[in-house]
Design goal:
Blueprint lengths: L2 E8 L19 H11 L12 H16 L3 E2 L6 E19 L5 E4 L5 E3 L6 E9 L5 E2 L2 E2 L10 E5 L16 H10 L4 E5 L27 E4 L1 H8 L6 H11 L5 E28 L9 E8 L5 E2 L3 E2 L3 H21 L6 E7 L7 H8 L15
Parallel strand pairs: 1-13, 6-9, 9-10, 10-11, 13-16
Antiparallel strand pairs: 2-12, 3-4, 3-12, 5-11, 6-12, 7-8, 12-16, 14-15
Length: 377
């Protein structure tokens, strides 16, 4: 019976200690890995968003490398395991805040703000309303007694620590965007919690969770300084607002009196073809070669925005993918004999919620044992 015993997953970069004495390990080349990372993280591939031309090129490159070193296709006659994913290509983005005299301050994409990966499209100029965590759970409701119809709503990107979201089925970002739209909002501004130990800067992300996509609601993530500039008419600081809400566990929502404009164009596809890539290095033992070890990393990252910025993903996870390829090369080129077979796999869609890994596990290239036993206790 064919069995897959366990999974080794590189989630960041590969490190090999000098004290390792496994035969052939000395052949693993940091120079080769760096060249692979440089290609995968290059501007040409534009951040390898799953389903994008850059991701397809990265997948084709790694597939060809697997083929060159003699790995067998893992999926019948194919190195690819296809599936479908949500896809959103952001083609233009702008964000402006107006002072009381109507003078505009134009903010810079990639410095002052970024678009959420699954932002909708739209052009909206309206007042900004601060709504805490953008939540309505149990007795807590940031929208109670607050009119956000046709407004831009600003709320903290991260969950409230005092709210037990699991009791309400989770509080994903998409859930909170949908809640804002349900209350009449036309645009969303996210801001990181300033009182965290290391407040998150605006980042590219496609981790939104399940739920309905809002095609007509633009969503951006601004930095803390920009948030304070929006709040200055009310003489508030974003860190003080978090302190008040967290300490009282009570909403503190209000109209800022400041007008902002968000302009985003994005092309959304509910289903876009993508793929995992995998090859097999066959073991030598007549019996044990039907047991498999999986060595993997994710190949995708979060793409680019408006042709102006891209997120290279060098260490998330081009370095892990380079490590997987270099290990496979070392086994193949040095003819290292293994009793068991090895599946080398590069996953898609880690960034949006591990869909590639789930696709691989739920549709494995070989049958899984009912009760796999680890090789190492």
């Amino acid at each position: 019976m064919k069995k897959i015993l366990f999974l080794i997953l590189f989630t960041t970069h590969l490190s090999v200690a000098q004290t390792v004495t496994i035969p052939g390990i000395e052949s693993i080349s940091s120079t080769n890995m760096l060249k692979t990372v440089e290609f995968l993280a290059s501007e040409k591939l534009q951040g390898r968003l799953s389903g994008s031309p850059g991701y397809y090129e990265a997948a084709e490159y790694m597939k060809n490398e697997f083929q060159k070193i003699g790995l067998k296709p893992a999926f019948g006659n194919d190195y690819y395991q296809y599936f479908y994913t949500e896809y959103n290509e952001i083609t233009s983005a702008g964000f402006t805040v107006f002072d009381n005299s109507g003078n505009p301050r134009i903010y810079e994409l990639g410095k002052d703000f970024v678009c959420r990966g699954f932002t909708g499209s739209g052009e909206i100029k309206s007042e900004v309303v601060f709504c805490g965590y953008g939540e309505a759970l149990g007795d807590y409701n940031d929208y109670q007694n607050t009119d956000v119809r046709n407004k831009i709503v600003m709320f903290f990107k991260q969950d409230a620590s005092f709210l037990k979201q699991e009791s309400f089925g989770g509080a994903t970002l998409r859930h909170r965007v949908n809640l804002a739209v349900k209350n009449g909002a036309k645009g969303i501004i996210l801001v990181s919690k300033p009182n965290d130990r290391n407040p998150q800067k605006p980042i590219g992300s496609v981790m939104d969770g399940d739920g309905e996509f809002q095609p007509n609601c633009p969503v951006i993530h601004i930095d803390l300084q920009t948030a304070d500039e929006i709040l200055k008419e009310k003489k508030y600081k974003i860190k003080n607002l978090q302190s008040v809400i967290d300490s009282t566990e009570h909403p503190f929502s209000f109209n800022t009196g400041v007008t902002a404009e968000i302009e985003i164009k994005a092309q959304y596809e509910k289903e876009r073809k993508t793929m995992n890539i995998a090859g097999i290095y066959e073991g030598t033992d007549d019996s044990l070669k039907n047991e498999y070890i999986v060595i993997g990393a994710h190949l995708d990252h979060v793409g680019g925005q408006a042709g102006k910025i891209y997120f290279p993903g060098a260490n998330d996870n081009a370095s892990g993918s380079a490590g997987v390829l270099e290990i496979a090369k070392t086994f193949a080129e040095k003819g290292i004999k293994t009793k068991r077979s090895i599946i080398f796999v590069l996953f898609s869609n880690e960034e949006s919620g591990l869909q590639g890994a789930k696709q691989f596990i739920n549709n494995p290239p070989l049958p899984l044992t009912p009760d796999p036993q680890p090789l190492i206790p």
